[in-house]
Write a structure and sequence with these properties.
alpha/beta; TIM Barrel; 2 domains; 8-stranded parallel β-barrel; 3-stranded antiparallel β-sheet; 12 helices; globular
Length: about 325
């Protein structure tokens, strides 16, 4: 078993808790992950969802960098459609200067919320730039992280500062072969979002696309949860489902429920939409059972790193799962 484990945290807010408590749990979990040998700790970006405290992952990343000393800290990911690539480059240059060699800039294409939150985030954007192709924005971000955009670009001469000893590691999160090839073309790492699309055919095609273009395997993100017994794990996780909403405009978004899908369409002002039910790739059971499944995925696809998203909100249950998964890995390595 030659793969490493990392964690993705949405700072979930369990029933009866608040955001302040969720953030304190995130801090404690990151410190625990560092102690237990996890490679990275990533923070998700979600807007307008009262169940998630993590709406500004770059701010939370700065705090976690100050509260840890070795583990890599990053975003999983910044929702680039809402922001100036120049400002994102500056933010992560600052983070990389504060903690050289420990910062990951993970970027995603999804909105991270419903249309009204997207509208609010983009309220002062140039209407033309709002419709800019994601690949163009990502290329601009990559340029500002390095020497700046080309001489014929409208922003030629703009220089993002400061200059860190080491740039953040650049990672694109996606769920298609097209995203894999975009990451490869720009020289970015790629994370396949198996927690959104667990279709084995699509997983295989996306992994192969990235491997063919770069000679290496991407990282695989997925839902996983371990408990003391298989039955307890299954009970706590339940039957996870996601729903991909397809709008007449061609836009498609992954959401957690049919209700959320209907609300997205309502806020987008459309009634002619369709939903596609998906079963995310979820591994739940005892720590040994989860480890065995990760072993099988690693062997099948050549995966060298998994990013684990724990789909259970309870603070104690999440902490236990992180501990159990690390222990099972150490036992196998020994």
């Amino acid at each position: 078993m030659s793969y490493s484990l990392s964690l993705l945290d949405k700072s979930l807010i369990p029933e009866g808790a608040d955001a302040a408590q969720a953030f304190q749990h995130t801090i404690a979990l990151a410190q625990s992950a560092e102690r237990l040998g996890y490679r990275r700790y990533w923070l998700a970006e979600h807007h307008g969802n009262r169940g998630y405290a993590g709406s500004a992952p770059e701010v939370l990343a700065s705090h976690l960098l100050a509260k840890t000393s070795r583990i890599r800290i990053g975003t999983g990911g910044v929702m680039l459609q809402h922001y100036s690539p120049f400002k994102v480059a500056e933010t992560f240059r600052v983070l990389a200067s504060l903690a050289p060699g420990r910062v990951d800039l993970g970027v995603g294409k999804a909105p991270g919320g419903l249309p009204l939150t997207s509208k609010a985030l983009q309220w002062l954007h140039d209407p033309v730039k709002k419709k800019e192709d994601f690949a163009v924005r990502l290329a601009e971000l990559d340029a500002f992280l390095h020497d700046g955009v080309a001489a014929d670009h409208a922003l030629a001469g703009a220089v993002a500062t400061p200059n860190p000893p080491q740039l953040p590691q650049r990672v694109l999160l996606g769920g298609t072969p097209e995203s894999a090839l975009l990451a490869a073309r720009l020289g970015w790492e790629f994370v396949y979002a198996g927690h959104f699309n667990g279709d084995p055919v699509n997983i295989g095609q996306s992994i192969e696309a990235y491997r063919s273009a770069t000679g290496r395997a991407p990282v695989l993100a997925l839902f996983a949860f371990a408990a003391e017994t298989h039955e307890k794990a299954a009970e706590l996780v339940g039957a996870l489902r996601s729903f991909k909403v397809h709008l007449p405009s061609g836009q498609s978004v992954n959401l957690g429920s049919l209700e959320a899908a209907a609300e997205f369409a309502r806020q987008a002002g459309v009634t002619d939409y369709r939903t596609e039910e998906r079963r995310p790739h979820v591994i739940a059971g005892t720590a040994d059972e989860v480890r065995d499944e990760l072993d099988a995925l690693s062997e099948r696809y050549g995966i060298e790193e998994f990013v684990i998203d724990i789909p259970v909100a309870g603070f104690a249950e999440r902490a236990t799962a992180v501990e159990l998964l690390a222990q099972a890995r150490e036992t196998a390595l020994a």
